[in-house]
Amino acid sequence: MAAQQPRGGDQHDVVGPTSGASDPPLATGLAVPVAVFRSSHPVAAALVALMVGLAALASGRSPREAAVVTATTWIGQLILGWHRDLVGLSRHDRAGAPAPASTPVRTGRLEPGSLWMAIAVAVLLVVPLSISTGVTAGTYLLAALAVSLVGNVLARSGSAAALVLGAILSAVSWALLPAYLTYGGWGGAAEGAPPNPTIVGLAAVLGAGWHLVQVYRAGPRPLLGLALAGCAAAATAIAVVGAVSGWQQS
Questions:
Q1: What string of DSSP letters covers 5-25?
Q2: How far apart are CA 81 and CA 236, in angstroms?
Q3: Is 233 exposed, middle or buried (0-12, 13-18, 19+ CB in 10 A)?
Q4: What is the longest distance spanned by two Cα atoms in the chain?
Q5: How far apart are CA 208 and CA 222, in angstroms?
Q6: Residue 116, domain member (yes or no)
Q7: Structure pTM?
Q8: CB-CB contact of 110 with 35 (8 Å)
Q9: How far apart are CA 137 and CA 142, in angstroms?
Q10: Residue 207 domain-assigned?
Q11: Residue ranges making up the domain that contains 98
Q12: From CA 243, how far away is CA 164, in angstroms rounded?
């Protein structure tokens, strides 16, 4: 199951002015959870969760099941966003350069340990939520999350090879999501059927396109537009195929 600039940079780095000479004060009190939430890239997380939740409804899952799917996917995306920030911060530290200002942990407003704690708590939530709709279904979602975490680490250099690798890993991650929907149900013992292979392929295309949207969201507008158009086309095709041929393998 996740957010989460010019092509040559970190996909979430160039979002504001570079760090100044003086460090901002650390967040305290209620400002800490607010800063942690901001570091999760909440808009991207909400968009992905909404897409998967709507796909759950389209695939025939009940509203309460779709709500669990949406919440579980959202938590997974929060984990990916926090981890993405930590990986980007570590990469700039190794290079001996200040991390560009974008989220609180990168500006020095929030300690990295706060994000690691948030990730630990979120993992304790996402694992039981994933398998609450079926062990097989939950395994696919957790595998998708694991692939995306690997992508955060391996595909962050900003090179052309990293761009391709990131798109491939994102495609693999998203290709696992239809199985999370078709194998799931209400209750941990729920079992379904394999997903429609066409939908799996289209989900992979959507995943690759989503990765490019994240990369180019602060970069050249024509490239961002192409990535968004590709995502829209893939999402539309998934809806059409699901409605015509069904979400499960026939």
A1: --TTS-TTT-SSPPP-SSPPP
A2: 26
A3: middle
A4: 62
A5: 17
A6: yes
A7: 0.82
A8: yes
A9: 9
A10: yes
A11: 31-245
A12: 31
